[in-house]
Write a structure and sequence with these properties.
mainly alpha
């Protein structure tokens, strides 16, 4: 299970980073843009560090509000969840939450 989480986070961050870079290129060339909703969705799905890194590296959407605020919210949440997962706190919480919804046999 741990490997799948790492793979997902890597894929989500690479996708989010690539989408931000592409959107910056589209903006510079006057082409059709990637929606902010799509960019924020990838940040929400675990790609917030990639979104943040791309915004700093290519200087894209750093002052755009409320996009920048939501990006920072998802970044903080992602970092908090990863920290809880690494510390081993998240798995028991997740298991107990699933036990509540388990249907008795």
């Amino acid at each position: 299970m741990t490997a799948y989480i790492v793979y997902w986070l890597a894929a989500a961050n690479l996708t989010a980073f690539a989408l931000m870079v592409l959107d910056k290129q589209f903006a510079e060339h006057g082409a059709r843009r990637i929606s902010e909703d799509a960019l924020l969705l990838w940040a929400f799905l675990g790609g917030a560090p990639g979104t943040y890194a791309a915004s700093r590296i290519v200087r894209h959407k750093t002052r755009k509000q409320p996009f920048a605020t939501w990006m920072m919210i998802w970044l903080g949440l992602d970092l908090m969840l990863v920290a809880l997962w690494v510390l081993g706190i998240l798995e028991p919480l997740f298991a107990s939450a699933l036990a509540i919804f388990r249907v008795p046999a």
